[in-house]
Amino acid sequence: MLMINKLATILAGVTALALIGVGVARAADAPLDAETKARVERFEKGPATVDISKYPDGIKANYEVFSQKCTQCHKLSRPINSDYALPDEWSRYVKRMMHKPGSGINAAEGKEIYEFLVYDSSVRKKAMVDEKLAKVTPDEKKAAEGKIKEVHDLYDK
Ligand code: HEC
To answer: Whole domain around residue 15: which residue ranges?
Structure first.
C-alpha cells in the first residue's frame, strides 16, 4: 500500500512537471493572430546580426545580453528588423518580453537590452526614428530625444 502511495506521488509529480513544461513551451509558440504572424515573418527574413564594430564597449557588452536573452523563443532578426525604434516602444516591448513565462530576463538585463536597442535604433534606424518623431507632439518628441540622449551620455566617451 505504502509502495503504491509512493508511486502515485511520484507519478503526480512527474505529471505536474510535464504540465509546467508544456506551459513554458506554449508561451514561446502560442498561436499568433494572422497580422502579427505576417509581421514577425517579415522581420525574421531580415539580417540576424547587427554590425556593432563602431559601437562603444558598453553597448557591445549589452549586445551580448540581447543576443542571448532575446533568442530563446524566436530569432534575433525579429527584434533587429522590427518596426520599433523609439525609447518608449522599446521599454514597453522589453517589459512585455520579460513578463513572458520562462523568459528568465532580470531587471538589470532588461535595462541593458533596452539601452542597446535605443542606442542601436538611434544609429542604424535613424531614418525610422526621425520619421516617427515627425509624427508625434512636440512634447513627446522632446521626451523621446531626452531618453535617446540619456543612453548616449551613459555610453559615448
Ligand atoms: C519567452 C519567450 C520570448 C522571449 C524570451 C522573447 N520574446 Fe519576443 N516574442 C515572443 C512572442 C510569443 C512574440 C509574438 C508576439 C507577442 O507576443 O508580442 C514575440 C514577438 C516579438 C517582437 C515582434 C513584435 C510585433 O508584434 O511586432 C519583437 C520586436 C520581440 N519579440 C522582441 C524581443 C526582445 C527584444 C526580446 C529580448 C528582451 C524578446 N523578444 C524575447 C516571445 C519571446
So the answer is: 1-30
> How many A from CA of 28 to the centre of ligand 1?
9
Residue 41 shares a structural domain with residue 21: no
Q: H or E element: which one contains 78?
A: helix 77-80
Ligand 1, atom 11: nearest CA belongs to which residue?
Answer: 28
DSSP 20-36: HHHHHHHHHHPPPPHHH
pTM for the complete prediction? 0.85
Ligand 1 atom closest to residue 109's alpha carbon, by position in its atom list: 38
Mean of pLDDT values over 39-62: 97
CATH number at residue 76: 1.10.760.10
94 within 8 A of 114, measured Cβ to Cβ? yes
